[in-house]
């Protein structure tokens, strides 16, 4: 494997950080703004009953469930993730809360998006959400996703453009410090991924590539923290510590300043972030 960020090695990070990361996935999944992004992505896939679909980097596996609804009992859903822990958790949730019989069966499998365990042209539709930003070789992954898509099939990539992150209600100087510190951390190495999806898909040979940038808006710290985790007190420290810090004392001061400013902004805090949904056809 060739990944770089903590989400690229979920099973290896300390338990406290892993719990924070799974908690983040859980909160994001139920956040109305992420649900809005997912509706755009699902519409873009144009699924039909009977389709075979792949969700690559499936996390806790909830998107696979909505794919199973869309493709119906004659369809098939494969959901793959490198994390054994997340795949086991997704499988457990499916066992505890099975889908109605008129839905497609879902298979959760451990697998790497840069080396997928599927033959060429296996799927009618393929999606990959907020995974490429964590990889050292995202173009290898995109090529692999194109490989497993059938000719004429659709491929939808969803990823964040962290550099689009903007705030109202925080001092400019503090936001500048956040950018200078975080953007140079290895944990944010894929921070511009969203806006690069179009060119990556085109380079990988996909045709009719369409972009839908979705701009998310959050009011207050709690609302934002469901998606922009580091707005929350404590999470910024964890993120900075996970990124091989050069000056932990300076990071502690910065994190304290950040937490104080976020608390004092309260409901005046406005957070804006763009997530890109980009779809192409395999020729
Ligand atoms: C931010 S999470 C997004 C999960 C899910 N797509 C979602 O939207 O909730 C990133 C996911 O990518 C998975 N991942 C990271 N590197 C991967 C790889 N090389 N192949 C497959 N999955 C990978 C992680 O284990 C994690 O579940």
TrEMBL record:
A Gene Ontology BP annotation from the UniProt entry: methylation
Domain Methyltransferase type: 54-156
GO MF: S-adenosylmethionine-dependent methyltransferase activity
InterPro entries referenced in this protein's UniProt entry, alphabetically: Methyltransf_11 (IPR013216), SAM-dependent_MTases_sf (IPR029063)
Name this protein carries in UniProt: Methyltransferase
Domain of life: Bacteria
PANTHER family referenced in this protein's UniProt entry, alphabetically: METHYLTRANSFERASE, SLR0407 PROTEIN
């Amino acid at each position: 494997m060739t990944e770089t960020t903590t989400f690229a090695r979920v099973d290896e990070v300390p338990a406290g950080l892993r719990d924070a990361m799974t908690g983040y996935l859980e909160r994001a999944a139920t956040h109305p703004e992420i649900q809005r992004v997912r509706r755009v992505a699902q519409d873009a896939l144009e699924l039909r009953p009977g389709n075979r679909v792949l969700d690559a980097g499936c996390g806790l596996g909830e998107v696979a469930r909505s794919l199973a609804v869309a493709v119906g009992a004659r369809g098939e859903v494969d959901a793959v993730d490198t994390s054994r822990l997340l795949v086991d958790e997704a499988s457990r949730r499916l066992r505890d809360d099975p889908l109605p019989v008129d839905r497609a069966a879902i298979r959760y499998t451990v697998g790497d998006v840069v080396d997928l365990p599927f033959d060429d042209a296996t799927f009618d539709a393929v999606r990959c959400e907020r995974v490429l930003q964590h990889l050292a070789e995202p173009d290898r992954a995109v090529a692999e996703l194109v490989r497993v898509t059938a000719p004429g099939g659709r491929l939808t990539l969803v990823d964040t453009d962290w550099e689009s992150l903007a705030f109202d209600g925080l001092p400019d100087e503090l936001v500048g410090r956040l950018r200078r510190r975080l953007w140079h951390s290895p944990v944010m190495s894929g921070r511009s991924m969203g806006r690069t999806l179009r060119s990556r898909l085109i380079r990988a040979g996909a045709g009719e590539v369409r972009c839908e940038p979705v701009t998310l808006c959050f009011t207050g710290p709690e609302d934002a923290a469901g998606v922009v985790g580091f707005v929350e007190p404590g999470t910024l420290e964890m993120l900075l510590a996970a990124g091989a810090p050069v000056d932990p004392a300076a990071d502690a001061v910065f994190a304290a300043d950040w937490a104080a400013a976020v608390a004092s902004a309260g409901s005046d805090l406005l957070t804006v972030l763009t997530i890109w949904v980009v779809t192409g056809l395999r020729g």
